[in-house]
Amino acid sequence: MIDLSSVLMFLGFAIAAYSVVGNDSIQTLGTFIASNQNVKWYYQWLFAGSILVAVILYSYVMFGGDISYGRLAKIPFEETQWFHLAAPLALLVLTRLGIPVSTSLLVLSAFTSSVVFSSILSKSALGYAIAAFVAYGLWYAISTWDNKSNPVPPKHERYWRIAQWLGTGFLWSTWLAHDVANISVFLPREIGPGTLVFILLIFVLGLGYMLYRRGGTIQHIVLEKTNTNYLRSATLIDICYASILLFFVTLNSIPMSTTWVFLGLLSGRELAIATRTPDYKLKNVFPIVGKDILRLLFGLAVSIGIALLVQHFAQG
Q1: Phi, psi for 104 (deg, rounded to 5)
Q2: What count of other Cβ atoms lies within 10 Å of the Cβ of residue 288?
Q3: Residue 130 CB: number of other CB atoms within 10 A?
Q4: Which whole-number Å values give the CA distances from 110 to 5, 174, 297, 316, in the listed order?
Q5: Distance CA 85, CA 82 (A)
Q6: Tell me, what's the pLDDT at 58?
């Protein structure tokens, strides 16, 4: 006889896998997709899918059957109930509407205590601030060099293309070490080989569909920023973002919102470019940055609402 909780567990995992990768694709693969429009989607799929499988297998072996890199140590496994599906379903809807939200705050809020949720929120806010500060300083220094009026010489373009693919691989693997926890929270902390194969299949197929759709509707968050489809800019964004994530990976095992870090980086970069570019005024930047902040706050409000909803049904 099929156990209902097991059905709900795998259903929640599948929905979370598709919606998390779909919503967070702008952070990790957004600039990669934007600057590689001439590369067939299935080559991108082979590249990103190979890294995904390698990263998950590494965690599975090193953490004794745990694919979350130990980031769920403070969030014990509990059997999935129907109300737990509210989080990934809400994320799925928001992704289809093109609204970027924190998948960590939204999905994990359905399973974690208020104390752990507060720690996740504090670390995410710190990530936004640090990313904005670092990006502002970096692009203030290089914005006159990193722009389309100073194009990459044709003889150097090949090297920048290689650097971008390497940078994307670095970023994609670092992001996975953070955010696989948002998906595997539905699963036992130790899983068997059969479950692992199923998980990898869901991940790889969902990733392929997202790349086939070239990032989907949420890709506009990247495209509306200055020069993000420009090879050198895309490469520098990826490497800077990956380096910041790597810092937080080694800081502690508490999950955090990588979405907040990414939007903080884009905001700091956009402000620096406006500061250094005569014909690009700060008044043009504030609506873009303001929209991103409103999206984050909206996602936070939805996360808190879902957490309260889950607690209500769990206690009832």
Answers
A1: -65, -50
A2: 17
A3: 17
A4: 16, 24, 18, 15
A5: 6
A6: 94
All residues at 6 or more sequence positions from 96 whose CB lies less than 8 Å from its CB, including other chains: 217
70: left (phi over 0), alpha (psi -120 to 50) or beta: left
Task: Record the tokens describing residue 85, joined without a space.
Answer: 């599906």
56-75 pLDDT per residue, tens: 999 999 998 899 888 888 88
Share of the chain above pLDDT 70, in %: 84
Q: DSSP secondary structure string, 137-186?
A: HHHHHHTTTSSTTSPPPHHHHHHHHHHHHHHHHHHHHHHHHHHHHHHHTT
Tokens 């390698």 correspond to 54
Listed ranges 92-101, 264-273, 292-301; the one with the highest mean pLDDT = 264-273
Distance CA 64, CA 70 (A): 10
Average pLDDT over residues 94-104: 71
Measured CA angle at 217 (ends 106, 202), to 5 deg? 60
**For position 187, what pLDDT does the model report?**
87
Tell me how far apart the alpha carbons of residues 160 and 211 are, in angstroms, rounded to a whole number.
Answer: 22
User: Would you give the end-to-end CA distance of the chain in angstroms?
Assistant: 27
- Tens digit of each residue's pLDDT (9 = 90 or more) over 162-183: 888 898 899 889 888 888 888 8
